[in-house]
Amino acid sequence: MRAWVAPRYGPPEVLRLEEVARPEPGPGQVLVRVRAIGLNFADCMARLGVYPNTPKPPFIPGMEVAGEVGALGDGVSEPSVGSRVVAVPIFSGHAEYVVVRATHLRPLPEGVSFEVGASLVVTGLTADHALSTLGRLRPGERVAVLAAAGGVGTMAVQLALGCGAQVLAVASSEAKRQLVAQLGAQEVVSYQEYPQAVASGVDVVLDSVGGRLFRPGWRGLRRDGRYVLFGFAAAVGPKGVRWTKAAWEVARMGVVLPFLLVQSCRTLTGFNLSLVPQLAPHLHQRYQYLCQELLGGRLRPLIGRVFPFSQLPEAHAHLQGRDSVGKVVVTVP
Ligand SMILES: NC(=O)c1ccc[n+]([C@@H]2O[C@H](COP(=O)([O-])OP(=O)(O)OC[C@H]3O[C@@H](n4cnc5c(N)ncnc54)[C@H](OP(=O)(O)O)[C@@H]3O)[C@@H](O)[C@H]2O)c1
Description:
CATH architecture of the largest domain: 3-Layer(aba) Sandwich
Structural class: alpha/beta
Number of helices: 10
Largest sheet: 7 strands, mixed
CATH topology of the largest domain: Rossmann fold
Number of domains: 2
Strand content: 15-25%
Shape: globular
Order of helices and strands: EEEHEEEEHEHEHEHEHEHHEHEHE
Mean pLDDT: 96
Bound molecules: NADP nicotinamide-adenine-dinucleotide phosphate
Distance between the termini: 12 Å
CATH class of the largest domain: Alpha Beta
Oligomer: single chain
């Protein structure tokens, strides 16, 4: 099969299209014929060698795919060969075939395209986990969403609006801000305007950027406010991790004194869904909820750009270069 291999950590150009052996599903595993790849910022971090548990090069990156079941390993009776599925292998998905554990597959509902399927799981579950499970967002509350025009961001804006919240969306360019305004965000601001906008009080902050943006949001949290950190995009430049800038951005987040949380009644929480396998049953339930919302027309994964498999490195550069809106998808012929 063909796969995009990272022979070393580095910028998008390091990726090489190679002929490699097709993996065989072992006991409890399923072979998936990949039809669409959902690109995630985590794929860029993995290629750069800074994502948790990234294999040593050479390795095949690829967190998320949609496709068809190609073969079943020993002890697996379903889903049947040919079923349409979505899967989050974390690594190895930038290929024509990938092996995943049968318990990690989810059905792709009838009538939903592979492209939409590949845009739903990671962005949807991340936004939902941040908003509803950890953010405990309630109707009428005000929620700030950083990087609101991105894959997770556009999902979060829609889910928050669906919950009846007031959304303060933050994005870097005018085009991105127009997009989130079209999604229905009531307030849309740039990063420069954000400190002032959030100072009037906010109940929940969804922060995947980190660094200097943390303090204004943390200060703006109302009593019972929840600050949810789940990424550090501020550390990444178009070519790689900018270590000096990353250190500076971390320093600007400052220090949070635990005992002060009591009087101010604030919660600071963080997560990385790829590091909590024990949440799988809960996330499977939440995937069903996302499918209901999708099929009911209340949630629409926003696909900004689709690349052919042959241009996967360009798709990486598009996402890492901060040019993308919504989800970046790569189709596999
Ligand atoms: N913890 C988890 O379980 C989990 C799961 C999924 C995703 N995430 C995190 O959530 C974030 C969104 O993921 P995604 O895949 O949907 O990506 P994305 O939001 O589509 O793309 C990343 C966005 O981050 C913003 N950004 C801010 N500073 C940046 C920088 N220095 N370089 C590049 N982008 C920068 C950009 O939007 P603006 O130009 O508007 O700033 C960019 O569009 C990422 O930080 C990712 O690591 C975490």
